[in-house]
Amino acid sequence: MTLVTNEYVWKNTVYSIAEGDEASMMILGLKRFTKHRGLDAISLRRKIAKQLIEANEYCF
What we know:
By secondary structure, this protein is mainly α. The protein has one domain (3-55). Helices cover 73% and strands 0% of the residues. It is built from 3 helices and no strands. Helix 1 packs antiparallel against helix 2. The radius of gyration is 20 Å and the shape is rod-shaped.
């Protein structure tokens, strides 16, 4: 599941069990505790490629 899909699911869950200010506070709490940093995919791919080239074989 992607983060967007998960966000949709937990928002629906919160709104089904709470309303008004209580729901708003729950949503804010979930946003706070589910923050994540993005990945530098290019650097990670280059690091993997470097290891493969150095080993001269597929080592994963």
